[in-house]
Amino acid sequence: MRIVVLILLSSIGFSLQAQVRDTIDLEGQWKFQKDEKDLGVNEKWYNKTLDGEIELPGSMRVRGKGDPVTLETQWTGSIYDSSFYFNPRYKKYRQPGDVKFPFWLTPEKQYKGAAWYQKEVVIPKTWKNKHIKLFLERAHTETILWIDSVKVGMRNSLVAPHQYELDSLLSPGKHRISLRIDNRIKNINVGPDSHSITDHTQGNWNGMIGKLKLTATAPVYISGVQAYPDLNAKEVNLKIALASMEGIGDEGRLEIWGSSFNSERKDSIKRQSYSYAYEGKADTLHLSIPMGDDFLTWDEFDPALYLLKLKLHSATSEEDQYQVQFAMREFKTDGKNFTINGRPVFLRGTVDNAVFPLTGYPDMDLDSWLRIFRIIKAHGLNHVRYHSWCPPEAAFKAADLEGLYLQPEGPSWANHGTALGVGRPVDKYIYQEANRMARQYGNYASFCMMAYGNEPRGRQVEYLSSFNAYWKKKDPRRIYTGASVGGSWPVIPNNEYMVRGGARDLRWKNSAPQTKANFERAIANFDVPFVSHEMGQYCVFPNFKEITKYKGAYKAKNFELFREDLKDHHMASQAHDFFMASGKLQALCYKYTIEKALRTPDYSGFQLLSLNDYPGQGTALVGVLDAFWDPKPYINKEDFREFCNSTVPLAEIPHFVFTTTEEFTAVLEVSHYGKQALQKDLFWEIKAEDGQLIKKGSFPHSSLSFGLNKIGSIEADLDSVVTPGKFTLSVNVQGTSFHNHWNFWVFPAKTPEIRPDFYTCTSLNEKAKEVLRAGGKVFLNAAGKVVKGEEVKQTFLPVFWNTSWFQMRPPHTLGILVNPRHPIFTEFPTSYHSDLQWWSIVNNTQVMNLEDFPESFKPLIQPIDTWFMNRRLAMIFEAKVGKGKLLVCSVDLQDPGKDAAAHQLFYSLRKYMESKDFDPKQEVELSVIEDIFESPSKQQFNNYSKEGPDELKPDQKK
Description:
The protein is an alpha+beta fold. The strands form 14 sheets. A six-stranded antiparallel β-sheet has the order 4-3-9-14-11-12, with no helix packed on it. Strands 28-27-26-35-33-32 form a six-stranded parallel β-sheet, with helices on one face. It is globular.
């Protein structure tokens, strides 16, 4: 092989004309036929006209092809809570013709197997002696191609286009293209829960989407270009793959030029000419293109892109043209930090779980991805991880334009039913797919990071160490981590960065909320950047108004089931209130979790799971956006950006419930990863809920360098507070949109004495019954005595991921719902939902199951149950019992170990019972109330499954 390159700097000026690569568009109607019995190959269906039709691009599911969903449907995806199939309570959801699965969105049609697609094409005479290629942008999953009666070959990729070289098979005239597509898991098993194939997410669809076309190229052509920017050398290094039909030798001239195309300041790449000669077949030209002294760089703030154009003037054939998009950027690691072009960067990310609720497959157009990425950036994020799947090219183009750092992954979650490094076909397939990803998308600036996929099992350390070593040597344009994993997975020693659990989320189960703790100790042993794996996972109650949005190939039968079950439990009218109240708690948890990450020294980023809902794995409603990336009404993007942004004011606050004898103190900090260092005045103020200013101050000329900046301490006396209430500390960075706030509560150190005119007891003893019979008032402190409801584990924090996927692992509740206008709260400041003053009252507290109470009965403090159970729960309720009035509380508000908020609520409760407002209207039989403390709940969880989810206990064995 001989390559001669001669640089001929040229100022020849001519514009790039339309592509000389002719195209035949294959979109539209195709012939179609299912092949359930795998008869097509033996019966040579490629030689016949298929029976049906289908419109492409699309899938069988979207086009209404396939089989109705039944209880016998064979899904691609694990089910770890089999109670749906056996529990008598779910019987009505298992009826033929109206099956409602709780596990994921339900497709109207389902098909797993082979299907045939066929189209006749006419090849023009002008294509004679040209290189012809079939391009299927994304096919799912295995394609086998016949041209007329000739079998061409097989392709199997979940990450890149299926492409076939057809030089000798498509002569001018009419030809039949026949494709057999099979979406079954065969010898290559990436894992049935991999988001590339699973019914939990995009679904295991059968079809072809994106661009479908035939292209014709000159006999000598450019088959690919890889661009490697070098900021230090001020150049871009090119690997230009040349190819020719039938080994034609060639020599000629290659012209290269380009310019920026999306930046305010324009920059051009001077036209240059190179002569080449080679002996035939494929080979690669290695060229370095100078970028000048003032080239543009790409990052999240200024995502400047270049379009490089190449024209091949061949001595033996017509010219060929090619263009490639790239950027001058360098995404690296420096100790425990990431850098972009030498500047520190903190990754604020979300996980994209391949959720496309209208089609089940990813959007393939630029506008759809621009919409998603603009929403992501509007919430202050700059990073996206693709959980065990790789998005299409449109996503990379959009991310380049918007300035987002992407971590696509190989299409594998090699855990359930498969493994890495044990000699299975998936071992080789992962390398093939990763190479296809790099070849197809490697030039895009946004492709900054890569992993094999998600949480594997097998000989993973050996396999992934080799995977990392291979890629670090082969392609330095991005950084590599073996896998995205939870905290119990083994560490891959040569990871360039960690995506890992073990240093995430709030630790408020046994200690009161505060903002002094961070993750520093949890990451101390890592010497590379640490990114939190799947942070958050805080659940919200379903929004049943969302059901009407499912107008495509999927229906939200899971939501329909939950709605109907809520109605059966006599709480249908409270659905929206449950949604909003749980949503407020979810938003609060995300705020304090993200701030905890931002105030951790040497912490490098987080990946939320996720910004939008995940409708699979039992229905995981963890997003502040729904599955359509639409906002939910309890928080907007502006509020989210307060605590999730390139610059975020922070406050270290020791606790959030104060007394009037205390001094409020806080240490102010600023997490800053902006475009440049800043020097700004910081202003702070403390106000009461009615707007009264308590105190204010400033820190003039504060220096905000990259990273975490300590600003100073503030304090405020609280002895002037007369009325218990909510107060707000606000911090603003002068001349910017960066601000943040924290609510705290102030209560008297000691509540006034009350001489009650009601009887207080810890059980419904004879004295209590006598008072009730006489028309008196009784307060029952039932803390620790509850039987009916003792199986419900309540903490202040909400359900994690969902209770079905983890077989009812606690906690089971989603916060509380109260009516703040009820007179029981006259002396206790509250909104309708959980907030930090409720922690001591709610956390690790018993709840009462009101399953036998009258249908219309509503408690005063109502814990919101997991939507898989929908139990009517209470912490405080009042009832008319015969002639008497009863108030029951399942938390000991008098406990001296509780904080001032609990004691204040007890005071407010007693004042209420002393007042004329205490007049319960809902009548309940005494025996029904007594049963709370005598009989267990009739409705108990039984998962009918033998073991827990595999991912909780990774198997290191073969």
